[in-house]
Write a structure and sequence with these properties.
The structure is a single chain. By secondary structure, the chain is mainly alpha-helical. Helices cover 81% and strands 0% of the residues.
Length: 135
């Protein structure tokens, strides 16, 4: 049993606060990227075909960037900064276009809630991760 502890097949990186934050941020980004997958199916099924193609394509690129950045962060590999930067720009653009194109009433309220509650905070996290120097 003692040999297993010394020869563990799992990573031997020591726990540090920076590693914990990286893992947390990676999980958030990966979870957001995975959450976009059923959302794209919903959009494809409910929007007119021309609109669905545009929104699904935008969300697919967002999901790819979020999943790339999140998986690289969780694995402790470099290279997450470019994907996080692209995701931040796309999320801000998505939030702005959602709010501007929303109809009055509950549609606008839903767009603002989605922008303030999900898209803009996630974009801020991505921008922070992209701007921080690699450690």
């Amino acid at each position: 049993m003692a040999l297993l502890a010394f020869n563990s097949p799992y990573g031997t990186r020591p726990f540090t606060l920076a590693a914990s934050r990286r893992t947390w941020a990676g999980r958030v980004l990966t979870g957001a990227g995975l959450a976009l997958l059923p959302w794209m199916g919903y959009l494809a099924g409910t929007l007119p075909p021309a609109e669905a193609a545009a929104w699904v394509a935008l969300d697919a690129v967002e999901a790819a960037c979020l999943l790339t950045a999140g998986s690289r962060l969780m694995a402790g590999r470099p290279g997450h900064r470019a994907a996080a930067a692209v995701a931040a720009v796309l999320l801000v653009a998505d939030a702005c276009v959602d709010v501007v194109t929303a109809g009055p009433g509950s549609e606008l309220a839903g767009a603002v809630a989605m922008a303030v509650g999900a898209e803009l905070p996630l974009a801020a996290l991505c921008a922070l991760l992209a701007a921080r120097a690699g450690r």
